[in-house]
Amino acid sequence: MNNQTHFILKLSTFGIHCSLEVTINVVFIPQQLRARISACQHSCELTNIRLSLSSTPPLSHQILYRHTDRHTDRQSKYLSVSLDMEKMVQSADENGGHRSPGRRLITRDELKQHSSLPSIWIAVNNGVYDVTRWVKYHPGGEAAITNVGGRDATDLINQFHKPEVWRKKIESWYIGDLEGCSGSSSSNGPSAAITTEFRQLGQWLEENGWYIPDTMYFVKKTLYALLMFSAALYLFFDSLSVDEGKPPKYTLYLSSFLIGLFWQQSNFIGHDIGHSSVFSKGSWKHRLFGNFVGNAFTGLSISWWKHSHETHHVTTNVVSHDPDIQHLPVFAISNKMFKYVSGKGAGIFSSYWDAFMPFNQISRFLVCYQHVLYFPIMTVARVNLHAQSLIFALTHAKCKGVLKMLELSNLLVFYSWWGYLVYLCPTWSSRLLFWYIANATVGIIHVQICLSHFIMETFDEVQYQKDGESYFEYQLRTTLDVDCSRYMDWFHGGLQYQVIHHLYPRLPRHRLRSLRHKVQEIVNKYRHVQYKHFSFLYANILTLKHMRDIAKEAAKGKLVPFKDTLIFEGLNAIG
């Protein structure tokens, strides 16, 4: 049943503020929205409703608004309002337009002054919020917020969080309105145009249900992984049925290969879980399932991964902030990593690790041969991730109480079953080879991850909003896709579409391929950006060539004395 009621709405659209008296119909929640509206409620009236429409004036749209009661936190109903936007804008112009009374206007210069602790402000959809007290509680880690402090984070927030989640969370932190129009780009050129198109595409995805997870898709993926694990266990125990003193059957090493693939497939699912794209609701479901798939299956802490990975998304290819490219003393993907830092020597300071990573004699030797060592190191790189997971679960301030118990108990499950299988191998040589084949096989995923970023541009600081550049342009400059047949999607697990994933990180894996052509259509309109994508083989060739070029530069770089490095301090228990 529809009920009519009378309202006076104060609207803000196209930078014009006006009041409008309308008659509304209360309706049930629709499946699709023709316009997304964010709103704040003050006392008994609805104020400053911001409209995001795909058309240009003149407009005559049915506009839908979801009202959240600030006292009960319940989303009560949708209001269907018919407005003639052309008349509304004309009326506002005649009256000079006005801003809702009592709103503080904050300039971009003032916003920039609150870019780091102890005071961090961000702008979202033209509102400014003091998020200082939320920094230490943010599930994705402090760096995900501190690195965008003092900026307009509209696109970052919208792409990473469901609208109902972030709006409910930050409403109480509102302090005023940002001067000028909302958005990551303050320019009126190509950056503003491409930002508008990508926002409209994101809005279209939201309205047409593309962000809604298909839980059964991931259940099937999990069952496929477990089937692979079951086959590995069968082959493993079959290989032990030989007379004492004889070498194990070849099926022992085939089972090790399948375990490596099982880990790879499980990590793909863990990546989906970390982005909350498996279940429609319930963060606890993602937490429990993530511990099951990540910690117990593969020995990698889901909390550690989320903490590191969200920082990577916010600071992609920023040498001092992005943990996914900070691999000294083994790898350097940019000459920025061995430039001279005043007072410290050559190297980089990692804000993620809160430590200086020097370029010294050891670094130079390894980096000079990194293009030769790249694939061999990838076969044992898993050891580093296991160590980081254990350190995070045992020592990190965010991992405490019930979460610590959950993390450690599931890691214990992993080391129990994996250690038991290695122990059952009949000889030390077979144990070592069994362990190595599994780790070398899962090392494929590390190669897949590195392909997406190693050859792309690197920066000294977070780039978007610098010189008017948008969030979307920044992701296009730092990420590439891998072309493959649909039949190879299982092998890449969604990591082949990292450009699409970085643009719209909430989009479930099974939707990524279908969105490629839409992204390509947008990029083709602009000369200043590119959508880069190569075959898996060619991307690997480019990566090795790039690392060889950096190796040549490293041979000429300045060094830090070994006694001034973290390695020396660790070996000598200093600090």
Description:
- This protein has 575 residues and is of the alpha+beta class.
- The chain is 46% helix and 16% strand.
- It contains 21 helices and 16 strands.
- It has helices spanning 85-94, 108-112, 143-146, 154-160, 163-170, 190-207, 215-239, 251-274, 283-298, 302-314, 361-368, 370-378, 382-395, 401-424, 428-451, 471-478, 489-492, 498-503, 512-523, 536-554, 566-571, and strands at residues 3-13, 16-27, 36-42, 45-52, 60-68, 75-84, 105-106, 115-116, 119-124, 127-130, 174-178, 340-341, 345-350, 355-358, 481-483, 533-535.
- The chain has a six-stranded mixed sheet with strand order 3-4-1-2-6-5, with helices on one face.
- Helix 6 (190-207) packs antiparallel against helix 19 (512-523), helix 7 runs antiparallel to helix 8 and helix 9 runs parallel beside helix 14 (401-424).
- The model is unreliable at 1-101, 182-186 and 564-568 (pLDDT under 50).
